[in-house]
Write a structure and sequence with these properties.
Shape of chain A: globular
Strand content of chain A: 35-45%
Strand order of the largest sheet of chain A: 2-1-6-5
Number of helices of chain A: 3
Helix content of chain A: 10-25%
Oligomer: homodimer
Distance between the termini of chain A: 39 Å
Number of strands of chain A: 8
Order of helices and strands of chain A: HEEHEEEEEEH
């Protein structure tokens, strides 16, 4: 299979693109991380989400430590070809390193970021 | 109301953060653009989505030309405080400048980005 599809993504100067992971069943937006070319290629090849960790400067197989892997059901690209959208099945129902379903657990309410979603599993149990 | 909540966002060196707009009713991810501090503040104050256009280098009231404004139902922040998620009502049911519901209208199928969603309105009619 040709890699032309990878060339069609408009990577930033740093070779990255934001990647949004959405729960394929609930529609909930679970997280937004970064991919480089290799992350996207591995995601496509393996059927599990890979990202580029900017803080650790390394390829990151989501769930490699926590077991919370993401099975990829579809990969979409936006009109500007610079943002990726994954529809995924989230192992364990936990995408966030805080032990919550989604990383977007805080909502702006009357000028304050209020935590709206519960911790489903203690991070100390997730990352041992 | 204090602006502390704006300070809690971890803006990039360029003063930006990705902002995802999700349809509050359907759950469909419609677009991903950038906000700066002023865009987020105006979004909160007005109840309609504002973004920062990197190409035009100006604040952008979504729908200012097309009429396809976005009424904001909730504003969320992720665990790293560097990505914003809006739940919105999309006027006209069209978020994309190509005249489609969502900017994520292309899906990777057998190594090719395939357009999956129809044009609902000709862009020449949208932007006159």
């Amino acid at each position: 299979m040709s890699d032309n599809w990878l060339d069609e993504v408009k990577w930033t100067e740093d070779g990255l693109a934001p990647a949004i992971a959405q729960d394929a069943a609930s529609g909930r937006v679970l997280m937004c991380a970064w991919m480089n070319r290799e992350a996207l290629q591995r995601t496509q090849q393996s059927g599990e989400a890979y990202y580029w960790s900017r803080s650790r400067r390394k390829l990151w197989h989501k769930g490699e430590e926590s077991g919370h892997v993401q099975k990829v059901r579809s990969i979409r690209l936006d009109c500007d070809a610079d943002v990726i959208l994954l529809a995924i099945e989230q192992a364990g129902g936990i995408a966030c390193h805080t032990g919550r379903t989604s990383c977007f657990y805080r909502e702006l309410v009357a000028g304050v970021w209020v935590t709206q979603d519960p911790v489903l599993k203690d991070p100390r149990e997730i990352y041992q």
